[in-house]
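Journal club side-thread
Mid-discussion, someone asked how the predicted structure for our own chain would compare to the paper's figures. Pasting it here so we can look after the session.
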Amino acid sequence: MQEKKNIGKLFDRIASRYDFLNHLFSLNIDRYWRREAIREMLRSAGKVSEVLDVAIGTADLSIELLRQSPAVHITGIDLSDEMIRRGKQKAEIHRLADKIDFVKASALEMPYADNSFDVVMCAYGVRNFSDLERGLSEMQRVLKSGGQLLILEFSYPENKLVAWAYDLYFSHVMPFVGRLVSRDKTAYSYFYQSVKNFVWGEQMTPYLKKAGFNHISFTTLTFGISIAYFARKD
């Protein structure tokens, strides 16, 4: 998709309404998805000190991690200046500014040494990578041996009735409301296409294996609307 080549600019345009629309479209269930994904990740991650949040955006996933594990330090990368700015503001509001470092950087070329982080995580960002294989390989490279990967992403429900309603909502309601509220003509149509054309469930497994991850599993959330992937670097 052409939008993926300029994904930072796309998120710059909608940053001011991003959180509002996220919670609106998900009926606030996105908070539950993050909470459950972090909880399950921490059960098996062992000792966690340094964490990388890829496509950190406005820092919702990082804030949830710090709520459950206050001792960690997080580095967050993103390509959008406006999302980073708003993420910093949110971290300050939650008195977490000293816990999260925001860096403008690409997931396809991370400015970090091999084996730097105990956990690498990404919420609703990997489908925006212009090169999925390269992005996953970079995640594996900067993750320490024995480290934990968490990817939270949208998927498609297996139940046909739920899938029909989901498709209708994502293809018509969400783009219309998104255009109305964000005043951006293309962003929320792109989001629908990015989910529809992405891999999910078992389809993700070969990509993770090729990148060098093992112990791969996933958990579906809310009828399969969202999915949390877990993997390790041996």
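Post-session note: The helical segments are 7-25, 29-45, 60-68, 81-93, 132-142, 160-182, 187-196, 205-211.
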